[in-house]
Write a structure and sequence with these properties.
Rossmann fold; alpha/beta
């Protein structure tokens, strides 16, 4: 199989794309790939580490506040289309896949104009700007949430789940001792996304002193930008601070409670691994999609939600204690997470792609 795949901007798009690539490599080992990403975002550093050929586009999202800046955005979009068409004419892919981020718009658009088969995947419960634009230019759409089906044409939409979930299940457990933690104590994992969150990190630093005499331990993932600053702070002995965990699913398998944003990939791993969680959606994302991702779980008592505007140090600690000190709450959350589980998501996506190619 010859595959052009595109995703960019955040781990929430990049890691599902990698999960699809890994599954294709497993099913069809002789497959060839070209990954098309943005020239200045995370994917330019992440993808080459996997020995996947990488092509970059200078591309930007629409600016809703400074409309005059969209002149450059449109110029870059047209230039990107020209480059994408050149790449595809030379590579001749069997399928072109878009897994989110504005970089996918010129990639899928170009593929459709050249007559190549196209597939897009929506990780969030509500589609983003790029996927809304691409609906008419794609042959097949995969969605992560059953509730997302209503936003797309029924005849070409399939509920696949998020491929990160299946990949998370295949990861090996990481020993807690690797982070200086006790194997026999409950673990609370704090993580605020692949880039971290300045405001949330500052809030959590203020909260840490309240955990000093707790029987459980905290693993606080700061993100790389604030790690050096935070590790200088006075932190209780039962709190361990790290900048980044490359294999988050590995430690999630040993986690009793996770405090997290509610990006789509994180949600998929929480569901797949059945990790009880307190979700704090980022209010700064487009269409408030993290809140909408979280609310499906919350409405089924599969997670707890606290909006950032309502956060208080004492209340967060109280909610953590109320879950960890009541085993039935933990068991109920885990059981209710089963209703959202799609353990073979990546496999299903690859099967749908194979069917699309064979038509």
């Amino acid at each position: 199989m010859k595959v052009v795949i595109s995703a960019g901007g955040t781990g929430g798009h990049i890691y599902p794309a990698l999960a699809i690539i890994h599954k294709i490599q497993e099913v069809e080992p002789n497959s060839e790939f070209i990954y098309i990403g943005t020239h200045n975002r995370m994917e330019k550093d992440i993808i080459p580490k996997y020995n996947i050929p990488f092509e970059s586009l200078e591309i930007y999202g629409l600016n809703r506040k400074k409309l005059w800046k969209n002149v450059k955005t449109i110029q870059c979009f047209l230039k990107a289309i020209k480059k994408c068409k050149k790449i595809m004419r030379e590579f001749k892919p069997d399928i072109v896949i878009g897994v989110g981020g504005y970089v996918t718009a010129p990639v899928i658009y170009s593929a459709k104009k050249l007559g190549y088969k196209t597939f897009i995947h929506e990780q969030n419960s509500v589609p983003g700007v790029s996927n809304n634009f691409l609906i008419r230019y794609t042959d097949l759409i995969g969605v992560s949430f059953q509730s997302s089906m209503k936003y797309f044409p029924e005849y070409k939409t399939v509920f696949t789940g998020n491929p990160c979930g299946e990949e998370a299940l295949q990861k090996k457990e990481i020993k807690k001792s690797q982070f200086g933690l006790s194997e026999n104590k409950q673990l609370v994992l704090f993580v605020m996304g692949s880039l971290g969150s300045s405001k949330m990190n500052q809030f959590l630093v203020k909260t840490m002193s309240l955990f000093e005499n707790k029987s459980y331990e905290i693993l606080f993932v700061t993100g790389k930008e604030m790690y050096e600053e935070i590790k200088q702070k006075k932190i209780p002995k039962n709190v361990k601070v790290v900048d980044y965990i490359d294999d988050m699913a590995g430690i999630m398998k040993k986690t009793d409670l996770m405090i997290s944003r509610s990006g789509a990939s994180t949600i998929s791993e929480i569901v797949a691994l059945r990790v009880p969680s307190i979700l704090i959606p980022s209010p700064y994302v487009t269409n408030n999609h993290q809140y909408k991702n979280a609310i499906d779980l919350v409405n089924h008592n599969a997670a707890l939600l606290i909006e950032e505007k309502n956060l208080k140090e004492e209340n967060l600690v109280k909610e953590i204690d109320s879950i960890l000190n009541h085993p039935k709450k933990v068991d109920d959350m885990k059981k209710n997470l089963e209703d959202f589980s799609m353990p073979n998501s990546a496999t299903l996506i690859v099967k749908e792609i194979q069917k699309l190619i064979s038509k």
